[in-house]
Amino acid sequence: MDRIVITGGKPLRGEVRVSGAKNAALPILASTILGGGECVITNVPRVVDVVTMSKLLDLLGASVRTEGSQVAVSVERLRSTEAPYELVKTMRASVLVLGPLLARWGEATVSLPGGCAIGTRPVNLHLAGLARLGAELTLEHGYIRAKAGRLRGARICLDTPTVTGTENLMMAACLADGTTVIENAAKEPEVADLAAFLAKRGGRIAGAGSDVITVEGVQALHGADHEVIPDRIEAGTYLAAGAMTGGDICVEGCLPWHMEAVVMKLREAGAELVEGKESIRLKAPRRLRGVDVKTFAYPGFPTDMQAQMMALMCVAQGTSMITETVFESRFIHVPELRRMGADIKVEGNHAVVNGIEKMTGAPVMASDLRASAGLILAGLAAEGDTVISRVYHLDRGYERIEEKLGGLGAMIRRVKGGTGVAAAGRRA
Ligand code: EPZ
What's CA 217's distance to the chain center, in Å? Predict the structure, then answer.
């Protein structure tokens, strides 16, 4: 397995361009199942999760052509309506084909996505919403088996604003008979981007991006072209990298108004940020101030930036309290940060971080996509070498991260699997 080796201590300088948003591209690709005609999606990030979704579409019988960051999909007929465990277990977001398969083909067999490192990740709200739309659902042998004639519009109130749950139900409602209202819907920009794509294809959706989404069902959707919005979490990760190293960087190709919570928190910690139309310039002091962070659904501080913020706070001046309110076990990066000298105490969903002057590089292990990003940031600021193993977690959601950070002056490189760590460490 590949490793990433970082020699820390260099302030990052220069420009970095973000890729398209993984969490917008995945539902958009899944939604191609809903209609005929070709869809050409651009600004798709070249990350493993997108490859997995493309494989799933191909397995179902879609024709998928990928050229760089462009993916062309047409789904004239389907070979299968089953998303198998072998594939779903590698990417939970495969559950996003459930709503479209049911709405367009009247049946779907999708493996229940298991839990993952950050939590049990149930899909009960997806299923309850689909049942409200008239689907018959049974769970057997680890699979969701769903059947429906034409779905019927309904009023659905979500217990919690689930992002992929909102997306699954919005997609299913597009072809239902009548009107569907989704209350307590997720307001993430990625939900709004999916809605914009569906509207281009004849979908009739109002309120996406707010907590009440209304969908008028139509008979059919046609193809359309769409450019995926920039990845606000990737952009936030690079801002955090600049802030972590006392750097001066410009993140380009991002949408600042999607990132207000992160921008405000970095400003509160003492970084200077200037927002352009599609860029954010960050200048950081030698050392940040400790600040408290509480994660919430959008537009609150994103849970997908929690690990990165915690890494920042490990070397900030003073004490910070980090509270994770979205997932029940999203502190798996804490033991690894402690290996680098961080002073963190965890009590339930609170982590108290006492900032220290310097962390020291160490061999650490990635455990999920965003925890891995937090370890990269810690390595950029630490004294000496950090060797991060299991970087396949990173490759799921960050396109060429070591190249992009290297372009900002970071001493970072990927060591192909099987090479001894010692050798890698010596060469760093
Ligand atoms: C999406 O996951 C993102 N993934 C996650 O990003 C992100 O962390 C999460 O939203 C929160 O913002 C994609 O969009 C592909 P949720 P999702 O359903 O939809 C509970 C990354 O790193 N819940 O909004 O799976 C759930 O347990 C990934 O890119 C139920 O109880 O998250 C959690 O506590 C990680 N029942 C809360 O809702 C359900 O049926 C939010 O989960 C569904 C969710």
Answer: 28
